[in-house]
Specification:
The structure is a homotrimer.
Chain A: H1 2-8, H2 26-40, E1 57-62, H3 67-79, E2 83-88, H4 100-109, E3 114-119, H5 124-131, E4 137-143, H6 149-163, E5 170-174, H7 181-193, E6 197-201, E7 217-219, H8 222-226, E8 231-234, H9 239-243, H10 250-257, H11 261-264, E9 272-274, H12 287-290, H13 297-317
Parallel strand pairs in A: 1-2, 1-3, 3-4, 5-6, 5-8, 6-7, 8-9
Chain lengths: ~325, ~325, ~325
């Protein structure tokens, strides 16, 4: 944890890389949310652009493809007036046998200011942050099962916008906690931001052992777990998982853990429903809920750009 | 037709989406041509840029690949100073089982201002225009066999530049009328703009039944059809068609319908030759004609960018 | 050679296309290096942008994929404030049977100002330069085994930065000279710039017959070849070559020609080590050397952008 903290924060205590919500203080997470408030209005303006990162070069290094996430980072960078390079790693020099370090150093030598990194291996963004020289900033866009910190922060932002503060809230995360980098980052973020009670709801096979050590309440029954919650965050069920022994079938999962209007009656009357998208209608969430009045799923997408603008500009301003 | 009109036009009668040349008034089509006149000069300037759409986000949604058409829309958007997102739909979330509506709503939530849509299904652009919220504009870049309205308007623009007006003109469209979205859009555009006589020339198997209802003269013999025409628009012969029963072979087609200098002698001495490109030399058009003095094929490409700039800026200015 | 000169130079003797280092005068090559000095600082600035090519359209036409080279040209163009189109030639209209000439004329008609061309065939950039109209500029980003002139100029720039001038220098190029467009362009550049002695070091099977005609000293023994050199340029060994009869194996090659610290003891004490990248560690170069104090490999990458900015702006300013 100290290692993470050192990598993410510079000597003045300001954000340098954004790799994980773990190891960052409540003050810093709150500063990210406050900055995102300023950027949330940019998307509504006639001219959706601010000149903060004009003349900076930001490279999207996606070792794992993701059109949706790459697009939000590209838009965030362009609205900050940065130049964006989309680098398809699979077709790049690494194929010719070049090492990752050589690829990174080559991009650094081109005076790229920031790498947005998506990788199938847990720890990849931290590893890259430990390799690059002091002038380059790393933002983690998802690494293996480890972390997806901008997703967690946009969820926190969406919750704060509706509820005002975190201190009185009960929040439940539902689904495949075991394999979810989103869940891990959310747990660290909401714990640090001081929610009253954080719950996870999933079958036993999909909950990792260390949950209770994080102060999270574990539920295997969704009706019990949703009781009085102010926000419920549904995770996307990965189809791959359902073919293994961990889960019987999509139908079965929906029957036991799918979010329906009926089940939401158990929650607080003003409960919010979040989902990182893309949603599997009828698998983890019913269409009535996804499209209903409690759903803030599309707001999450909008706020995701504001959060990314905030994180990118903070990392760039945090140069020593 | 009322449905199309409603979708394309806002309450003040201004262009909102550009989906089809069908259902738009002569005044509106003329306004597009007049605006394109202003943009035609931008490509010749030292600085090929105007700040009209600065800070706007335009997403190219190409469900059907087309480098040429996408490039012209991308250039038009960039010369209007907009930010452009190229979204490869096949590699995007729709693959993960996300519905089209969810994909569109996600892009809307990112505050995209305009979608340029290309799709293999007829009606796709209208369908998408009916789904999006009031802040988003749709431009049809070709949908199935239905419409390709910017191609039709750039053809009309090219004709007007050379001939001054439409009222005295005889224009012939030659080739696979049946399967051509270009031909459909041209017929509606030239009819509305008031050409004196519109002709289609093709084998019986490639002419749809409704032609005469549109006031179009049908010819199966190219020499008769070209008699005295002021402009001839060649369609690209799709190779797929020639493998079916509709046509014998490329050689055979060229012999019967290919445009040669010899055949052009039948036409008006100042006849113009148009083609949407890419051309099949020696299939629908002889190289002598394609590269000859009567060909305006490359002018069409240039004007295509002016037309797209006009349509994009009109749709964006037409917000309610 | 006269043909090349005519194509590259306009009537006033200024650079028009940049196709090859062959046939350009020492004055012109020196002007490129001097201009690159001005641009070398841009990458270090807070705002890495100059407005020289604002409103110009530059199309990257890569018929042969190369993420690394395309990225440096894209960055150079963006830092000159140009609009950049990346055109994937394999998925473009050429697949539909369109001829190369038609593709080029279509891009010209879109008012593209410059094509950056990469092609597997020797002579492709010259051929394209001979086809385009007078308003379009061509920069060769590598054609077959023929030329890679921006790579040669960035090597010359790196050498001049460290050594001040060329007149007293001994420079050796090591590796597969036979198949290397980089080596060919370097030999012409360094000869024209007036190095004291230019050497090539390779097995007999990898040295073309015409070497001695170019005034280059040929060595088959690396220790003899490196004696007293001021700079050594390692070439990347293409894996394809090693499967043929020309070379026994990567291990064998490293044993006979791989650059090690031990071997460098033979060279001048201030010897510089260059490599165009991506490097094959342990094949043509030892990691100790690649990462050592004499290596300027990453500087080459930085200077590559400055050279490309210089060449692009000179070609654009050289319009008649």
């Amino acid at each position: 944890m100290t290692v993470h903290k050192n990598l993410q924060i510079n000597k003045e205590g300001r954000l340098k890389h954004f790799l994980s919500t773990e190891g960052l203080s409540r003050e810093l997470l709150t500063e990210i949310l406050d900055n995102a408030e300023n950027f949330a209005g940019v998307g509504e303006r006639a001219v959706k652009k601010v000149p903060l990162l004009r003349g900076k070069t930001i490279a999207n290094l996606f070792f794992e493809p993701s059109t949706r996430t790459r697009t939000t980072f590209e838009l965030a960078a362009k609205r900050l007036s940065a130049d964006v390079l989309n680098i398809n790693i699979e077709s790049s020099a690494t194929k010719k046998g070049e090492s990752l370090l050589d690829t990174l150093q080559t991009l650094e030598a081109m005076h790229c200011d920031m790498f947005v990194v998506r990788h199938a291996n847990s720890g990849a963004a931290h590893f890259i942050a430990s390799l690059v020289s002091s002038g380059v900033r790393i933002v983690n866009a998802g690494d293996g099962r480890h972390a997806h910190p901008t997703q967690a922060m946009l969820d926190a932002f969406t919750v704060r916008r509706h509820k005002g503060s975190f201190s009185g809230l009960k929040i439940a995360i539902v689904g495949d906690i075991m394999h979810s980098r989103v869940a891990r980052s959310e747990i660290h973020a909401f714990n640090t931001l001081g929610v009253k009670e954080l719950r996870v709801i999933a079958p036993k096979t999909l909950i990792p052992a260390y949950m209770s050590a994080l102060g999270v309440k574990v539920f295997h029954n969704i009706d019990a777990g949703l009781k009085d919650v102010d926000a419920v965050i549904m995770l996307r069920l990965q189809n791959e998982r359902m073919q293994g022994a961990l889960l019987p079938s999509a139908d079965e999962f929906f029957k036991m853990y799918g979010l329906t209007e009926k089940r939401l009656e158990n929650a607080h009357p003003d409960v919010m429903v979040l989902h990182p998208g893309p949603i599997n209608r009828g698998v983890e969430i019913d269409s009535d809920v996804a499209d209903g009045a409690r759903s803030v799923i599309l707001e999450q997408v909008s706020y995701g750009i504001a959060i990314r603008m905030a994180v990118m500009s903070m990392c760039m301003g945090g140069s020593e």
